[in-house]
Specification:
The chain contains six helices and 15 strands. The protein has about 240 residues and is α+β, with helices and mostly antiparallel strands.
Length: about 240
């Protein structure tokens, strides 16, 4: 049972009641009706308990069921690939494909909730400070945030940082880019652009692709990587040019 403050749960293990801090639980998995709870800096716990029963004890905004037998803490989430949720210490846990939309939504809501606890202006300043080293970078560079819409399962890429070289390429004032969607800056770009951003932002793939850009008026070499989960770093070059 959870305590009144929601910081611990009480479990009967080997006929003894144990008080378990919720923040220490990394994930739990059930195999042959035996539930194993993996904790941070503590030995695993084992008891006969269903995932549904454990899930009912834990805060829904912090824990996510990724398959019929596995429950993970979003506090320890690191990344997501085509088949596994990746937690701290490089723990890979397979997820159900049908759960993918719910996983993406839950992760993004969790990250958004963390951001809301900080001052919004401070959060934006953090992004600017982190990538300030690219301000005078001679090649167009930007950071895009991948935003998942659970209603229609669509992905939208929004500019969170761009340098002057990127603004010059688009012939658009830099201050007009930040906070706007990629589709508004590149209205004629085909679906490959958004798909590429999603592959990097969500699945951590590094990419090097030649794509047409009507906005820039030529073909562009696009290099993408994942600086943080849900974000895509993107550099634009003329084909054949080295960064």
């Amino acid at each position: 049972m959870p305590d009144m403050e929601g910081k611990t749960i009480r479990l009967m293990i080997n006929r003894k009641e144990r008080v378990i801090p919720i923040d220490n639980i990394i994930y739990a998995e059930v195999t042959d009706k035996l539930c194993t709870i993996i904790r941070k800096e503590a030995a695993p716990l084992q008891l006969f308990l269903t995932i549904a029963s454990l899930k009912a004890m834990l805060p829904s905004h912090q824990f996510l069921q990724i398959s019929r037998s596995c429950l993970v803490s979003l506090k320890y989430f690191q990344n997501l690939d085509d088949s596994c949720v990746i937690l701290t210490n490089d723990i890979h846990l397979p997820y159900s494909r049908r759960q993918k939309p719910q996983i993406l939504t839950a992760v993004q809501e969790h990250l958004a909730g963390l951001a809301e606890k900080q001052d919004a202006i401070a959060w934006k300043q953090d992004i600017q400070d982190e990538f300030r080293c690219f301000d005078r970078f001679p090649f167009p560079f930007c950071i895009l945030e991948n935003i998942f819409d659970s209603v229609d399962n669509s992905q939208t890429s929004v500019f969170r940082y761009a340098n002057e070289a990127f603004a010059a390429l688009l012939r658009r004032p830099l201050h007009q880019l930040i906070g706007t969607a990629f589709a508004s800056a590149f209205p004629l770009a085909d679906n490959r652009w958004e798909e590429m951003f999603t592959r990097s932002a969500v699945y951590g793939e590094s990419q090097d692709i030649i794509l047409p850009s009507q906005k820039a008026g030529r073909m562009l070499r696009v290099l993408c990587y994942q600086p943080h989960f849900g974000f895509c770093g993107c550099m634009l070059l003329e084909p054949g040019k080295q960064a």
